[in-house]
Amino acid sequence: MTAVVLAAVICAGAAAWLMAGHEPGLRRAGALLIGDGPTGAPPPGAPPWERGLWRARTGLPRLGREWLCLPPALLLALWGDSPLPLVGGVLAVPLVRRRIGARELRRARERCADGVLALCGVAAAELRAGSQPLPALLTAAGTTGGLGRAQAAVLAAARFGGDVPGALRQAAQEPGADGLVGVAACWRVAVDSGAGLAAGLDRLETALRAEKDQREGLRAQLAGAWSTVVVLALLPVVGLLMGAALGADPLRVLLHTPAGLGCLAVGGLLEATGLWWAARVVRTGEPS
Predict the structure, then answer these.
(1) For residue 206, what pLDDT is reported?
(2) Among 49, 25, 48, 30, which residue's Cα sits nearest to residue 40?
(3) Reported pTM
(4) Which of 5, 45, 167, 185 is 20 to 30 A from 267 via CA?
(5) What are the φ and ψ backbone dihedral angles of 38, each rounded to 5 degrees?
(6) Residues 89 and 74: beta-carbon distance below 8 Å
């Protein structure tokens, strides 16, 4: 029976790993047999077996990392002989997906903010080297990016004499690209009054760098608080492991007795409330 349970857990973990997109062998075979184009589609006139392989490859489900909650839940369900852990794992999937999405959005904002910072530095350096504003902006945007999805509009406005400040303000609506509003203001002032654009970009870069340093320092100070939250969240798991090591069989008590089910419900509610409250307290100190 133990071998069957272990085999089932291993198969479930392997399936979750593959469905999460970690199939280097399949991607390598597809790149060799299908080609490495923008979409990976076979060229016109390709043989049927190649088109079939492409359809099989693109038809594979690509699930996110949040689905990795299911293998541990399945392990607990098999170990405790109860479907409740599996139900809990399924309910945790959307919460983990939301957390992963928020983290990816924050990283995208930070990358875009770093691109704007680099854009200001490169453009100011090009202007001090004797370049004109439009070529300097084109060089900086092509080298560093930082304009988000509106980069094409800004480059087109710079190349063909369009409204560059308006395009920059439009690009500033991208998450993390707020600094482009300052670039647009510097551009407008330099065009209207003849003021030095390089000096304005230097001051803007200094302000953006100071803001970035402050944000990183605050996040480093909050890292200890987040570690405390994680440790407190794992304490019930440590208690279950200690009980199992002492031979108390806590899963049987929690999942198959009325008193255990009541304790599990109350403990889960208190755990969720404590995590929510601690995360809220820590987030109040995070930079917006």
Answers:
(1) 92
(2) 30
(3) 0.65
(4) 5
(5) -65, -35
(6) yes
